[in-house]
Amino acid sequence: MGAYILRRLLLVIPTLFGIMVVNFTLTQFVPGGPIEQILASLEGEGDVFQTIAGGSDAGLQEAGGGDERYLGARGLPPEFIAELEREFGFDKPAWQRFALMMWDYIRFDFGESYFRSATVIDLVIEKMPVSITLGLWSTLIAYMVSIPLGIRKAVRDGTPFDTWTSSAIIVGYAIPGFLFAILLLVLFAGGSYWKIFPLRGLTSENWEELSLIGKVLDYLWHITLPVIASTISSFATLTLLTKNSFLDEIKKQYVITAKAKGLSERQVLYGHVFRNAMLIVIAGFPGLFISVFFGSSIIIETIFSLDGLGRLGFEAAVARDYPVIFGTLFVFGLISLVVGILSDLMYVFVDPRIDFESRET
After folding, report:
1. 34 FRET partner, CA 20 to 30 A, in 15, 190, 219, 316?
2. pTM of the model
3. Domain-ending residue, one of 70, 87, 119
4. Are residues 206 and 278 in the same domain?
5. Is the pLDDT at 22 greater than 80, yes or no?
6. What CDD domains does this protein map onto (predicted)?
7. By residue range, what is the domain housing residue 39?
């Protein structure tokens, strides 16, 4: 197993390098780079040097798109534009910029945001708690609901219970996450009906004044709607996966033998079937967490005004904030590849009989 893990770890390097090469190459053909974004945000007014070095969010908020006009039409001197290119490193060839960027990333030096007076690492650490909250709670709730439901559906396969629960989860899966989030806001956040939950944020304004229990309750009060909205689409896949895994195991010979020995249905189900059927479900936990962590956070964070990694990445892409874009891409790509290895280790942990090395040979 050690040799297999070592090979997987070594494959992380070329895979991550390929991800960075592809994305860096694509950005070279996207119009409206950081300099164009800065010039577009100025609109011929304001203090240029404050916009570049001041780190205010004004440049980020106003830079909604590129400018197709020739930059000289703004009346800015070529010397000033050349100075901008030098300051941002665009006076160097693309291959040289990529090489310097990867050398810094290998040392985990991700630089500083173009439009915020903060390093990329500080921004990620600042926004991480929101995304972890959504990803972790959504994954845990999905498992807590889907596994018992999937087992129940497998035991009662073909019954009315199986039919109407399948219809319900498929309908939930078909509803877009952003539409369900808006529906929750309208119904329960003071939109048109009840004002039960807060409209935005993870904590109240008087958070520091609350007791420990008050802080916990306030936190749970704020995350209820975002977590429900980000979890709704996870139920279908996980529930049906659990059901099908149990159905496959129930039909195997060892189950028939266990029943013939006089074991009760509960003893057979949880003493024999459960471990084998849950292999693929439990081993998929890291991957599901990462998919929820990265996948649904952008829309959910935007709708509920949560300042997390999803909004950070979206705003960085709009403003062409390359240090934030490539820095987070590198970190998240590395995390995803490591999680793939952890998923394999989870398989071995759940069932030690699995040997990836013998399967490769």
Report:
1. 15
2. 0.69
3. 119
4. yes
5. yes
6. TM_PBP2
7. 25-119
